Q: What sequence folds into this?
């Protein structure tokens, strides 16, 4: 940035109106016919184009095993953009984008298709003024990674020097299924590309409220002084979904809630909540602090009590009868895969010694909600009669990640009247809904960051590996056990409530 | 929810606002600023629409001040709405009659969101000197629009003469997308070396203030002469920059929607560059409330002002001016 500002006479650090626009580049999407590409990626590309944030030379290249003509893909992409775009759909914007949409049919072991892709990318220099810059989005199952990456290595697609520009790769979770496999995957990706060109997407980190967590903590004086074991009683991080597994049985049954959500989203949220202040706001400094927290995580020794997993049974949710996990399509009837996981973690640092971090995630819970609740200790002394404060709970600061993004503070307040009575009240800051109409979708933001080469919001391989170090012992402990059943539409199995009750706490109802 | 008060007082409006907030629940509790909109009765719908769009992006309390006839009995009518037709924001439309129009700040001051920045936007012509309007004096940021004036270039000059840090103009906001495209064209230097500009031309509708500001900006940043020629419009239609041996860079937008980026040695590219609506412009203005030094430089360059505008004092002192006395002193030129 400073480099550009020094050499480009039209840039000025004081000129805050001008956005950064990426260099002319191509975005290559593998698995472009998949759900993610249609629901998220293509709409995000359209939204970026509509907001004028794509470079003048930009090409979207789709790759998939379909017998499609070029026009077919264009039609599918257009429908996806119309359906999923956040901003208004404008025909002329699309027409311009459609002019730079390409499709290459082929399977991943098809040498000719990759040669063709290499050739097409090379041709873009003369047709679109794109000097070798390309980002490859691997929207494909991880089992396909090796063969695709080998192809890229063979054709030199991943080679920065050979192509004369930058080459970046974007991978989605799951980043492996345990420490060993993630190491293998990481070294494979890092070998073919260089480590700094690998972007691991955790779309939670693209959300405004998650980034706002850093602003809340480090831009204010109000919160940081109490953000430690002296004032914090416990932290609860929840990601609840009301949906079931839908059509993902194939993947989900081999992964489960801990691998699917706990390992990435929840541990990343924990890291942002617990990390020390980074020395500056660049990617490297933030990463350093996150790695320190992830490296300091500890599991309880009594996993029987402090690591609970569950599986939903049939029940009623939001006024509808829903099937149990075993009755979902393609789920083996004897499956012991968990659809709910709750765990108590410790952060072994001076700041957090003795503060439990309770993490939970599950499917078919009463509502879709993700939040981080910092629960403060009770006042050491209350100068009121016991009966005055029976309704006073813990002070809380809740960061609502989704939906209804915002922050809630709970504190005690006097009930109006002649008697002294204190009761909990909530103070709300609404970040979301009405006021974020114009704030970008997570994928929009993250795609733009990839094209700009900004890694601040992307976990790197060390973070991923440290996270697996936490999950692996859990999975090992759970092997051969059966998950606790819970009814669809309730807040998880009884055992999870008992886990908190044993320490005199209760789950917050989000 | 909307409450309408006829022939009311400032204090009653404050009370009605508090009551309205109570009954509507805790909406808009994240107020980031107060936006005062100074507007004529005929422009109220346009201004409301723009303010609603802008307020959706930036939580604010909108205070619309409509100054009606000076020759009337003093009267205040107010309409308070929360989460109503003006979107999720708190909006109060204040209609003032008689001598009250000269003391609008007395109604507005108690209605400002506590300790939040104040932005005043004239959704029509602004006074020759902002200091004449107390609603401009109390604001941290003042938004004018030279384009609404019949002689926009003269209006720009007046803005430069009257400039204080914290002033900004929608004519400048309209250049953002052009500037953004030009800046990114300069980022992408194919040979690895930054091109040096040797000359530049802008084509635009005659008397377009945005073109003048864009020319001022290019002149200041590139250190070259910028030639302004007129075209049929709409708005700015073409910008060309000569880059010495590297050839020429041009952006043309004949239809006000799509632009073509042409550069020597590279294929042409089509880009969306639509003219933006008022709400969008206003939202951009509210995004950042710090002093826009780059605008000050461009304004100075556009009006050949040699003084460094950004070093002026940011505060103004209200200058009392009574239109009734003025009318008596200098008879209406049309009537006379």
A:
């Amino acid at each position: 940035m400073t480099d550009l500002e020094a050499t480009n006479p039209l840039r000025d650090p004081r000129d805050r109106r001008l956005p950064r626009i990426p260099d002319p580049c191509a975005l290559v999407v593998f698995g472009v016919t998949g759900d993610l590409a249609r629901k998220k990626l293509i709409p995000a590309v359209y939204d970026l184009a509509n907001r004028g944030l794509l470079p003048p030379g930009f090409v979207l290249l789709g790759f998939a095993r379909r017998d499609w003509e070029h026009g077919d893909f264009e039609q599918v992409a257009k429908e996806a953009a119309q359906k999923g775009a956040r901003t208004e759909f404008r025909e002329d914007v699309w027409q311009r984008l459609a002019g730079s949409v390409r499709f290459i049919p082929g399977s991943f072991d098809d040498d000719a298709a990759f040669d063709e892709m290499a050739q097409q990318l090379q041709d873009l220099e003369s047709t679109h003024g794109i000097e070798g810059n390309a980002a490859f989005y691997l929207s494909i199952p991880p089992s396909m990674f090796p063969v695709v990456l080998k192809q890229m290595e063979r054709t030199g697609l991943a080679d920065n020097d050979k192509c004369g520009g930058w080459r970046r790769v974007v991978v989605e979770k799951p980043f492996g299924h345990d420490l060993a496999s993630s190491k293998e995957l990481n070294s494979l990706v890092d070998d073919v590309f260089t480590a700094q060109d690998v972007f691991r997407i955790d779309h939670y980190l693209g959300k405004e409220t998650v980034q706002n967590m850093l602003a809340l903590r480090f831009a204010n004086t109000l919160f940081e002084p109490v953000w430690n074991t002296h004032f914090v009683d416990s932290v609860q991080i929840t990601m609840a979904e009301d949906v079931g597994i839908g059509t993902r049985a194939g993947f989900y049954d081999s992964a489960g809630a801990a691998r699917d959500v706990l390992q990435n989203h929840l541990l990343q949220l924990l890291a942002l909540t617990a990390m020390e202040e980074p020395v500056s706001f660049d990617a490297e400094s933030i990463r350093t602090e996150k790695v320190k927290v992830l490296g300091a995580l500890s599991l309880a020794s009594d996993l029987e009590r402090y690591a609970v997993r569950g599986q939903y049974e049939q029940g009623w949710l939001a006024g509808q009868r829903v099937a149990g996990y075993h009755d979902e399509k393609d789920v083996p009837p004897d499956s012991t895969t968990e659809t709910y996981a709750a765990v108590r973690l410790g952060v072994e640092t001076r700041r957090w010694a003795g503060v439990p971090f309770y993490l939970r995630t599950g499917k078919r819970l009463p509502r879709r909600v993700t939040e981080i609740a910092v629960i403060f200790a009770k006042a050491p002394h209350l100068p009121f009669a016991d009966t005055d404060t029976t309704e006073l709970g813990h002070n809380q600061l809740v960061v609502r990640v989704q939906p209804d993004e915002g922050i809630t503070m709970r504190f005690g307040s006097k009930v109006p009247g002649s008697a002294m009575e204190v009761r909990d009240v909530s103070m709300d800051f609404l970040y979301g809904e009405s006021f974020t109409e114009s704030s970008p979708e997570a994928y929009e933001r993250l795609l733009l960051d990839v094209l700009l080469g900004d890694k601040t919001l992307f976990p790197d391989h060390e973070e991923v590996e440290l996270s697996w170090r936490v999950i692996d012992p859990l999975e090992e402990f759970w092997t051969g056990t059966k998950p606790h059943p819970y009814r669809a539409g309730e807040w998880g199995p009884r055992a999870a409530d008992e886990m908190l009750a044993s320490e005199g706490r209760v789950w917050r109802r989000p | 929810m909307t409450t309408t008060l006829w022939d009311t007082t400032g204090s009653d409006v404050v009370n009605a606002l508090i009551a309205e907030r109570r009954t509507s629940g805790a909406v808009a509790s994240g107020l980031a600023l107060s936006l005062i909109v100074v507007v004529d009765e005929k422009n109220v719908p346009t201004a409301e629409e723009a303010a609603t769009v802008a307020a959706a992006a930036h939580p604010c309390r909108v205070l619309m001040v409509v100054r009606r006839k000076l020759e009337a009995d003093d009267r205040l009518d107010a309409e308070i709405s929360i989460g109503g037709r003006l979107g999720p924001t708190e909006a109060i439309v204040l209609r003032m009659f008689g001598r009250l129009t000269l003391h609008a700040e007395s109604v507005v001051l108690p209605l400002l969101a506590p300790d939040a920045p104040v932005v005043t936007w004239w959704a029509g012509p602004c006074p020759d000197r902002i200091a004449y309007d107390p609603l401009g004096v109390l604001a941290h940021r003042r938004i004018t629009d030279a384009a609404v004036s019949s002689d926009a270039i003269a209006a720009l000059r007046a803005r430069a003469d009257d400039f204080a840090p914290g002033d900004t103009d929608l004519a400048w906001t309209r250049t953002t997308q052009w500037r953004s495209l030009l800046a990114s064209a300069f980022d992408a230097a194919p040979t690895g070396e930054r091109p040096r500009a040797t000359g530049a031309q802008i084509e635009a509708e005659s008397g377009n203030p945005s073109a003048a500001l864009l020319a001022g900006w290019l002149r200041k940043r590139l250190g070259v002469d910028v030639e302004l020629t007129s075209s049929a419009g709409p708005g700015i239609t073409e910008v060309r920059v000569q880059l010495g041996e590297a050839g020429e860079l041009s952006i043309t937008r004949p239809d006000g929607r799509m632009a073509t980026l042409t550069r020597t040695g590279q294929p042409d590219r089509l880009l969306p560059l639509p003219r933006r609506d008022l709400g969008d412009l206003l939202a951009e203005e509210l995004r950042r409330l710090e002093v826009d030094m780059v605008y000050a430089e461009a304004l100075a360059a556009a009006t050949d002002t040699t003084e460094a505008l950004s070093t002026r004092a940011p505060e103004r002192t209200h200058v009392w001016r009574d239109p009734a006395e003025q009318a008596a002193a200098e008879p209406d030129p049309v009537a006379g």
About this structure: The mean pLDDT of chain B is 87. The first helix of chain B runs from residue 10 to 23. The first strand of chain B starts at residue 2 and ends at 5.
